[in-house]
Amino acid sequence: MSRTDKLYSSLEAIEADFRRRLTIEFRKLATGGWSRYLADYSSEHPMGRFWRTPEMDQLERNERDVRRLRSKLGEPLDAGPLAVLEWFQASRRISKDFYRGRAEALAKEALRRLAAT
Q: Do the beta carbons of residue 71 and residue 77 sit within 8 Å?
């Protein structure tokens, strides 16, 4: 197996785990709950170390690794679960009524988009 094949294999595995974990976070939000990862990701003022969880650390590690591997392989960064995360972030910024039911609708759309990737 060539080095490039190993990198692609690693990317697929990490991206699959990232997609699975991201789906869990979007489900929390879609059912009226709260996701520390999505809140911290979208905030201009991250919550800091006090609010850290192992799950949040793993999501951030996965995201960082997916970005690094996609960049190294010359793959677009706006594809797969990263694209859904960026779409959610952009949609959240322009939504003035995010906390009045719009969060659930955006999370449900994000789940639909994740399933299609």
A: yes
